[in-house]
Amino acid sequence: MIAQPETKHYTVEEYLELEIASDIRNEYRDGEIIPMTGGTPDHNDITSNLVAILKATLRGKPYRVFILDQRLWIPGANLYTYPDAMVLPKPLELQTGRKDTVVNPCFIAEVLSKSTQNYDRGEKFVAYRKIPTFQEYLLIDQYRIHVEHHVKTAAHQWLFSEYDDPTVTLSLSTFELQIQIAELYENIDFSTV
Q1: pTM surpassing 0.90?
Q2: CA-wise closest residue to 175 among 82, 93, 56
Q3: pLDDT tens-digit series, residues 6-23
């Protein structure tokens, strides 16, 4: 039997020090550092489409919209991560002693890739649910028209809806915002996927 190399475990302090000097984003999962690979052009377009809608709709309202490079700390899961898109109510809450890490999103969206879709639907969603301010989660498939929407309805209760029709309108309850599914997929050509 071949012995597996032991996984190095890092402290939060070690991770943050390495992350500041890193050229790439890395997720911190309970002592392990996981490199976050780059996305596809479709992944980027879908994320940008969503953020453009959010920024336009929430302009002048008490929210901030972030994309890709904003680090989120979830102490209850011992996780640092970089959601594809998130919205935080003003004022921002930062991790104690940090100016670059937020802790209070109310809305998070992830664009699914083949390598991360199970994690985004499973373990990562479990971690996100440990955030007291978190109310709404959107998962957008980049390979076909398919959106999964989770809305918190009560403590430990989430309502799940899914959409496969581009003409359907999705309602984000946190902001009373309507998005036609086709808007999320603007410029995406599934015939080349």
Answers
A1: yes
A2: 56
A3: 678 999 999 999 998 888
Strand partners, 141: 112
Residue among 179, 188, 186 nearest 54 (CA): 179
The half-sphere exposure of 98 on its side-chain side, counting CA atoms within 13 A, is 19
CB proximity list for 85: less than 8 A, separation 6 or greater: 47, 50, 51, 54, 65, 66, 67, 68, 108, 109
- Which alpha helices (H) appear in 22-97, and where do they start and end? 41-58
Report whether 51 contacts 63 (CB < 8 A): no
Whether 70 and 82 have beta carbons less than 8 Å apart is answered as yes
> What is the maximal distance between C-alpha atoms in the chain?
62
Please write the tens of the pLDDT for every residue from 134-185.
Answer: 999 999 999 999 999 999 999 999 999 999 999 999 999 999 899 999 999 9
Q: Are 74 and 127 in contact (CB under 8 A)?
A: yes
